[in-house]
Amino acid sequence: MSASTILNLFACGVFRDDELVETYEDLCERIVLHNDVIEPEDEKIFEQFIQRVSDIKVTMTPKQLFKIVLLIGVFASVQSKNCNFRFWKAIACEHVDSAESLKEGVEESIKHDNVATEDFQGLEIQSSKIDYLTANLFDQYGHILNFKILFSNVSNIPNGAFENLKNLKELQIGFGTVDNIEENAFAGLDHLKQFIFFGNKIKRFPKGLFDNLHSLTKFDAHYEDLEEIHEGAFDSFKELTTLELLGNKLTELPKDLLKHITKVEEIWLNENQLQKLDPNAFEGLVKLNNLLLNNNHLTEIPNTLFKDLAELKFLNLQSNNIEHVDKNAFSTLSNLNFINLSKNKITHLPETLFQNIIKVSSISLAHNQITALSVNTFKGLPNLSSIELNGNLIATLPDGLFADNKMLSTLKLGENKIQTITTTIFEGLNRLSVLSLKKNEIASIEPNSFKDLSALRELDLSENKLQVIESNSFKGLKQLYSLVLNKNSIESIPADLFEDLQALSSIELNNNAIKQLDQATFEKVGNLDKIFLGSNQISHIEPGAFKNLVKVSSFYLDNNKLTTLEEGMFEGLSAVEYFSIENNPIKTIAPHSFKGLSATRFLTINKNDLEDLPANTFSGLNSLYQLDVQNTKVNKLQKQSFDGLGKLQKLYISSNEISEIESGAFEDLVELDSLSLYENKLTKIEKDMFKGLDKVDYLILAHNQISSLEPDTFDYLPNLRILGLSENQLSNVQDNWFINLPNLAHLELSENGIETLPANVFSSLKKFNYLNLNNNKFKILDKSTIPVVSDLQYLYLKRNNIESISPDAFDNMKNLLELDLDHNQIQVVTSETFKGLNQLYTLGLNDNQISDLEPTAFDNLPVLSRIRLEGNKITPEVLEIIKNKFPEPVPIILN
């Protein structure tokens, strides 16, 4: 198996459970099974996949996007030629080391991939050793429209470098070492529309450098070391609509730098070190729509700075050091829709600061030092839909502050000093949907304070000083969906508190001082879906407390004071799927305590004082899929402990005190596939313990005190694939322990004090591919040390006492992909040590005693990609040579 196949296997595995690529699993498998050959139909499938990705990119999560980038990288890796045609109509070349090899690679790609002339529109060079750019390099590619060079060694762009690329529309130079550009470097690029330059070492742009780029519509030089731009450098950019200079080290802009780019619509100057701006810096930019100045060091906004920006819609001044804003600073921004002044040092807002931006819909003033607001601050702003004032020092809000903001839908007032909510603060805000008051000092809420908020969906009052909630505190909130009251000091919940909250779906009352739940507590909230009651002092729950909560799907009672669970205590919670009662001092669970939880699929009752699981403990949990009973004092599993759990598939009974398991304790768990008994006090494992578990494929018995096994121990586990026996006392391994496990693939035997293995111990394991023997006592590796079958792919021998490896040690491991020998005492490694491991992809040799190592020692491992050698006595010169041979993988960058 080649390195690229391994990458493909990994990528396919990553995507296997993701709906986004379910229909493309066949492509993954075909690439793997056909020796990395990409067939024409595969390219079509992949192109369809990328098209689908582009169609849904707006709603994609970061995790999905990462997976997609990974798959694209894998797709690229399976092609063995230096140059390959991409479906976006470009020939991409990687690791070419000369102009000749570039041209040969392009010609080969044209021939091999049947590239028509009209389809060869772009050339991409990545991770090449070509350290120069000349016109001759491109003499055959004058027709291309796009050129991209990434991760190159080019340090200088000479005069006329691109003069043969007469038709070029887009030029990208990124992640390189360019630190000098000659005066006429861009001569001949008369038709260039987009210039994208990032991740290089350029410190200055002199005047005249870009004079030839008079057709440019986008100039993007981001994340450079750019410190200086000379006056007049952009004078030729008459057609420019987008200017991106983010992520540089600019401290100032020349006064007339932007004077001639009068068609510009977007300017990105964020993430620089700008300290001040000339009052006329943006003079004449009458078409500017978006201006980003966030993450700089600006301390003030001159009152004429934005005077010509009548079309500006988006203004970001976040994360500067602005202390004062002139009252006329925004007076000409009549079309402004969004303004962000958050994360500055503003202490005071002029009363009329926003009076002329009547179209504004969003104002953020979060995380400043504002202590008070004038009643006129937001006056005359009828379109305002979002205000962020969180993270200031505001103690009171004047009556009528939001009187003109009838369209307000989001209001964030968290992290201030507000002490009381009065009846007049939110008057008239009948469109408000989201209100955050978290992290204030609110100790009281006047009755009917929220009466006008008929459209409110989310209310956050967490981390305040509320002790008492009056029954009419939330009157009028008929559309409220989510109520958050975490981290207060609330002691009780009034019976009528939820009378108006008929739409309430989620209530969070974690970290309060609630002592009990009465029958009437939740009587009037029949639409609740989630209840969070963790970290209170609940010691008593009245029978029938949950009788009307038939729609609740998630229920959390973690970290309370319950000592006993009584029969029928949770009746009514018939829709709960996730139920957690972790970290309560529970000593007794009465039979049928979980009666009524017929829909519960996940139950957690960890960290308690429970000593016993009697018969019928879990009766009523007819749909349970996963049960966690961990960190308790349970010392014995009885024959009927798990009665009624016929659908259970995952059982984790770890970190308890179990020393005895009765015969047949699990026999009713006919659907169980995973069982963990990690960290208990088992000293002996008997065959009848596992009766009825013929579907189990995952069994963890690690961290017990087991000293021996019998040949028939696992007779009732014919489908077992993964077995964990680490951290026991199995030092004397017998050759008949695993004879009845025909499907075993993965075995963990670390930390058992093993010194030797019998010759036939693994001979019956036909599917065996993973063996962990870390932290044992092996001293010598030879052909008989690890008597494995030939299909073994992963072998871990970290932290043993291995001193030497004989040349034949791995003769029977030709399919090994990963070998870990870190933290041993190995002194000598030669080219014979790992000879024959032609599929080895990763090799770990950290922290050994290796000293005399030849740079060619690993050259006979054809697909080796990653090697660890730190912590040895190898000379830095040899380490550097080997590191260059096996570099860390470089991510593929997509633009």
UniProtKB/TrEMBL annotation:
UniProtKB keywords: Cell membrane, Glycoprotein, Leucine-rich repeat, Membrane, Repeat, Signal, Transmembrane, Transmembrane helix
Q: Where in the cell is it found?
A: Cell membrane
Highest taxon of the lineage? Eukaryota
GO cellular component terms listed in the entry, alphabetical order: plasma membrane
PANTHER family in the record? AGAP008170-PA, INSULIN-LIKE GROWTH FACTOR-BINDING PROTEIN COMPLEX ACID LABILE SUBUNIT
What this protein is called in its record is: Uncharacterized protein
Q: Organism classification, top ranks?
A: Eukaryota, Metazoa, Ecdysozoa, Arthropoda, Hexapoda
User: Do the record's keywords include Membrane?
Assistant: yes
